[in-house]
Amino acid sequence: MFNTLSEVIEYYQEYHLTKNKYQYRADNLGYFDDYPLHQIKRAHVKEYAKFRRATVSNATINRECSFARAAINCVNNDYELSISNPFEKVKFVEKDYIANYLSRSEYDRLLLSALETNNQDLHDFIVLLTMTGCRPIEILTLEWSNVHLDKKQFIVRNHYSKSKKTMYKYLNQTALSLLLERQANANGRYVFTNPTTDDRYKSFSKGFQLCKKRAGVNCTLYDLRHTYASWLIQKGVGIYTIKDLLGHGDIESTMRYAHLDYSQYVSAVDLID
Q1: 162 in any annotated domain
Q2: Are 108 and 241 members of one domain?
Q3: In whole angstroms, how far apart are CA 18 and each of 120, 249, 260?
Q4: pLDDT tens for each residue of 10-48
Q5: Of 13, 69, 188, 224, which cross-links 129 as Cys (Cβ 3.0–4.6 Å)?
Q6: What is the mean pLDDT of residues 173-194?
Q7: Are 56 and 130 part of one and the same domain?
Q8: Does residue 87 form part of some domain?
């Protein structure tokens, strides 16, 4: 029924994912089509990792192997097959990930820089990313119909969220006040409607590059999401609450911020002083 890994992945994409989702992973995994599906062994996976490591990180390789593993498990379940899965329990050591986040001073300089360049939309975009922990695409695609200021929340629809689940995002007073002001002057269906095109902004990357250079701050737009989580940790918010606020699928993704709340460790070692 399935002779190659590519055939398995094609079935997985067609019947269990949005069409052509992760096609770039499928293309790379075409490496294994030199082998009949039932002959792929763990040694071949290690060879693949060595081949890919010349151009990508172990984190990328792990995601590709996870994708292949899920595809094989899928056809095994759907057709009650017993295809050996050489990608099971495969995980290559990844580099330690340290999230970059801004200090309050750096954040303030970014906002001032945006205003000094007369870019109110960029200023507001930075504020909302930092005060909600959203990914840039989630704010860029946010429509007024999904904003409920009376409930101090807005909805990120599943097709725009990374987890593919509809999520509720909650507004502090800063974010609420900003959205109230923008709503009073709204000129389109999107919270960030480009007045030139009457469609949503596609990106703020170019303006942000100029803004951060002027402010002397080294960060990416995605680092504003890290900043949100880091500030919450430092204020004593529980790690599981932060997990839910960020929309993480598992606690491991959130634990990258746990080291920022070091007070408990200081208290612990003080016990033997």
Answers
A1: yes
A2: yes
A3: 36, 19, 37
A4: 999 999 987 667 888 999 999 999 999 999 999 999 999
A5: 224
A6: 96
A7: no
A8: no
List the Cα angle 223/110/212 in 5-degree steps.
Answer: 70
3-state secondary structure of 142: coil
Residue 108 and residue 17 share a domain: no
The verdict on 158 and 210 lying in the same domain is: yes
Rounded CA gap, 61 and 224, in Å?
26
Strand partners of residue 190:
143
pTM of the predicted protein model: 0.67
Name the token pair of 176.
Answer: 């609420």
Task: Judge if 134 and 258 occupy the same domain.
Answer: yes
Contact 101, 226 (CB under 8 A): yes
Q: Is residue 198 part of a domain?
A: yes
Q: Give kind and range of the element (H or E) at residue 168.
A: strand 167-170
102, 149 in Cβ contact below 8 A?
Answer: no
- Mean pLDDT over 62-88 rounds to 96
Domain range for 18 is: 5-79
Residues 6+ apart with CB under 8 A from 101: 223, 226, 227, 229, 230, 231
Residue 221 lies in a domain: yes
**Cα 249 from Cα 246, distance rounded (Å):** 9
239-255 confidence digits (pLDDT tens): 999 999 999 887 878 88
Q: Structural domain tally of the chain?
A: 2
Helices in the chain by DSSP H: which ranges? 5-16, 23-29, 42-52, 58-79, 104-116, 120-132, 136-140, 173-184, 205-215, 223-234, 239-246, 251-254, 263-270
User: H or E stretch including 238?
Assistant: none
